[in-house]
Amino acid sequence: MEKQDLKYDEATTPVALTSENKLDNDSSEQIPSGKPLLNPQPSDDPKDPLNWPLSLKVGVLIQVCLLAGLGTLNTAIINPAYGPLSKEFGITKVRASYQT
To answer: Which of 61, 85, 88, 97 has its CA 20 to 30 A from that of 10?
Structure first.
C-alpha cells in the first residue's frame, strides 16, 4: 500500500489528503501583508492563551513541569522509609512497599 499524507477530521478519522481537500492553513501560506498565516488564528479575547502575557505563560510552564516531576519524586522519596516502616508495624520490607 502506498504511503499517503493523512489529516484528521472532527471525528478523528484519518482522511487521505488530495488536491481537493488540502489543509486550508498550510504553514507556507501568507496573508497580503507578507506575514505567515497563523493556525490557530489568534483572537482579541484576553482568555486566549495566545494573548497571555509572557510571565503568565512562563508561570504555567513552570507549574506543569513541577507537577510532572512530583509523581516520580513521590515514588522515590519513600524508599528510605521502608526499613523503619517494616520495623514499626512488624511487617516485611516488601509488604511495607505496598503502601499507597
So the answer is: 61
